[in-house]
Design goal:
The structure holds 2 protein chains of 2 kinds. By secondary structure, chain A is mainly alpha-helical. Chain A has helices at about 1-30, 45-55, 60-75, 90-125, 130-140, 145-160, 180-215, 220-225, 230-250, 250-265, 275-280, 285-315; strands at about 80, 85. Chain A has a domain at about 90-285: MetI-like fold, CATH 1.10.3720. Chain A has a two-stranded antiparallel sheet with strand order 1-2. In chain B, α5 (about 105-140) runs antiparallel to α10, α7 (about 160-170) packs antiparallel against α8 (about 175-200) and α10 (about 220-255) packs antiparallel against α13. Classes of the chains: A mainly alpha, B mainly alpha.
Chain lengths: ~325, ~325
């Protein structure tokens, strides 16, 4: 198994390399350079030229790429944000935590919604409940994320006032206290529910099909003829067998959540990576943009790596020697 | 014994043989004939009334959007008149006006047409690329297959939304054509994968081998032999990805990085929800466009699923 994992990790390196080249090329294509924000009408052209020369911006492009990679890998230096006037790594670091907390809550909600719905829909196939689940699944599959987010925000945020309509924490809470954490959670619930509703589709569909298939399998017949109560057959035997592949989708679920975070965070003005990306694009803060694209790419790769690793643990047939 | 049957003496046993008349032959042929995909579809829509309703709604939407945008002049609709700023729905403006005093209904019709056209263009392009690449790669296999599949794997793990947004910002004099091009770069992968896997299994079949032995040209086998056999799957994926592409286009425009702001678009209209105060007080700005997208997506997806069922004999209702 370790061989498979190692092989997957090694495969990640060229992918990251190509991604970094794409990001660097996009950075080159963007108008302006890191000094654009510093220039005032009083700045002498020679002074700018000296700064450019010192920063290595007049070097050949491959050399610049090498310098850029060295700065990132050795010093963890992603440059300076000129709208926020702080190192990009600090800025992004603050936001990453927010996005990860939101993703974690969303994943928990996805499983809380999807598992009971999927199992019971499969168990009582063609009942009214099953039909309801199928309709729910169809709608959550077809609806675009930003429409669902806006509708939830309008209904639960503005009309019913159940949840706050933006931000991650209210003013006046001290960091580290219990109230602070609860207030943060309160702000995360609505975006997390939106993400969860959108994310349940695949899991419910898969679980429902698995349960329907499992009903006629020999191991279920054996269990029932032994006299195991029906509830227990479903909660122990069938659930365990159908759930393993779903656990393996976890990586892809996280990947999907990350790419969806751009929409969800923008709609709910939740200060995470996605929201930072959109605001940095609007203010043409290229250093932040590039770092975020690179980070998203890295996290996506990590997500698919995670899925592959879980898959090899769950299903020994796909191991590579 | 009817006149169509005769007794035949074979060895020790008597066998009743039925003489097949020409009418019987027709009936038998009709029984053994595999119904065409077109007929299966018709049957499926007859059984699933909701799918028929969705199809009719879609036709009405498309017709309204096409005719409406044909009658309206885009420059006229996009002309700013500050006197009419933020007018709520009234007799003069059926759905009210936006910040520039432009009527929402006009933007809805033209924007709807733009979104549908972009979705359609991207779907057609990705399908063409995906079908050709997928067929060739799946049929020949080997090294080319390996390389193309690695490229597909790589594109799949890219943060697509962010890269498209970055491209949109970088490209100078950016217009609708660029947008279609950028989306195609990232979304041809899905169709290629699907066609490849189908072509791979299909190319092991006997009829392909027979064709090969007879010396048929490879491309003729691919496009005249394999393609018709997997076309129903391509068609239903095409419909579903059409809905997906409209969703992606409107979503990106909603964020402000899809169509240029001077072009009316459904996404821009939905995006008004993000302007301060519009969310709950100026519903007419963004709700019609949101509902329009929602209805369109639900209908396209429902029709797509009916087609999907029809293409898979196990799931057919009709």
């Amino acid at each position: 198994m370790w061989k498979t994992v190692l092989r997957r990790v090694l495969l990640m390196i060229p992918q990251l390399f190509i991604l970094s080249i794409i990001v660097f090329a996009l950075g080159q294509a963007m108008p302006g350079d890191p000094f654009t924000g510093l220039i005032t009408p009083q700045t002498k052209p020679e002074a700018i030229e000296a700064l450019r020369e010192k920063a290595g911006l007049n070097n050949p492009i491959p050399v610049q790429y090498k310098d850029w990679m060295v700065r990132i890998l050795r010093d963890g230096n992603f440059g300076q944000s000129y709208t926020y006037k702080m190192p990009v790594s600090t800025l992004v670091g603050n936001r990453v935590a927010n996005t990860l907390w939101l993703s974690l809550l969303t994943v928990i909600l996805i499983y809380l919604i999807a598992i009971p719905l999927g199992i019971n829909a499969g168990r009582y196939q063609d009942s009214a409940f099953d039909k309801g689940v199928v309709i729910y699944n169809f709608i959550s599959y077809a609806i675009p994320s930003f429409i669902l987010g806006l509708i939830f925000l309008l209904v639960f945020g503005y009309k019913l006032h159940w949840f706050p309509t933006g931000g991650s924490v209210d003013l006046g809470f001290k960091k580290g206290t219990f109230d602070y954490a609860m207030n943060k959670l309160y702000h995360m619930i609505l975006p997390a529910i939106t993400g969860a509703v959108l994310g349940t589709t695949g899991t419910i569909q898969y679980l429902r099909n698995e349960v329907i298939d499992a009903k006629t399998q020999d191991y279920v017949k054996t269990a029932r003829s032994k006299g195991v109560p029906t509830d227990k057959v479903y909660s122990h035997h069938i659930f365990r067998n159908s759930f393993l592949p779903i656990a393996a989708f976890l990586g892809f679920t996280i990947t999907g959540l990350l790419s969806g975070s751009v929409f969800i965070e923008t709609i709910f003005s939740y200060p995470g990576m996605g929201e930072l990306f959109i605001s940095s694009i609007n203010s043409r803060d290229y250093a932040v943009m590039n770092t975020l694209v690179l980070l998203y790419g890295f996290l996506t790769l990590l997500g698919s790596l995670l899925s592959d690793i879980i898959m090899t643990i769950v299903d020994p047939r796909i191991r590579i020697e | 014994m009817s006149k169509n049957e005769v007794n035949v003496q074979t060895g020790n046993s008597k066998v009743n043989v039925k003489i097949v008349t020409s009418e019987d032959e027709k009936a038998l042929k009709a029984l053994s004939e595999v119904p065409s995909f077109h007929e299966v579809l018709k049957k499926e829509f007859k059984v699933d009334k909701l799918a028929t309703v969705c199809l009719i709604i879609l036709i009405i939407i498309f017709a309204a959007v096409m005719i409406g945008s044909f009658i309206l002049n885009q420059d006229e609709v996009m002309k700013i008149s500050l006197r009419n700023k933020f007018k709520p729905p009234s007799k003069e403006f059926i759905l009210g006006t936006d910040i520039g005093g432009r009527s929402i209904i006009g933007q809805l019709l033209i924007g709807g047409r733009n979104s549908i056209l972009i979705g359609f263009a991207v779907t057609i392009l990705t399908t063409i690329i995906g079908t050709i690449v997928g067929l060739i790669v799946g049929y020949y296999g080997g090294k080319v297959d390996n390389i193309i599949m690695r490229i597909c794997d790589f594109i799949t793990v890219l943060p697509t939304t962010l890269l498209i947004i970055t491209f949109v910002v970088v490209i100078p004099n950016y217009n609708m054509g660029h947008f279609i091009f950028i989306m195609t770069i990232f979304y041809w992968v899905g169709m290629t994968r699907l066609v490849r896997s189908k072509a791979l299994s299909e190319s092991r079949r006997d009829y392909v081998n027979a064709s090969k032995v007879m010396g048929t040209n490879d491309f003729k086998i691919m496009f005249n032999g394999i393609l018709p056999n997997i076309s129903s799957i391509i068609i239903c994926d095409l419909i579903l990805s059409f809905a997906g592409n409209i969703g992606i286009e409107t979503g990106l425009t909603f964020l402000g990085f899809g169509l240029p702001p001077s072009t009316p678009s459904l996404g821009t209209l939905v995006g008004y929800a993000r302007t301060p105060g519009a969310m709950s007080d100026k519903l007419w700005l963004w709700l019609p466009a949101s509902l329009f997208i929602l209805v369109m997506m639900l209908c396209i997806n429902y029709v797509g699923q009916a087609v999907k069922r029809a293409s898979d004999a196990k799931q057919r209702l009709g």
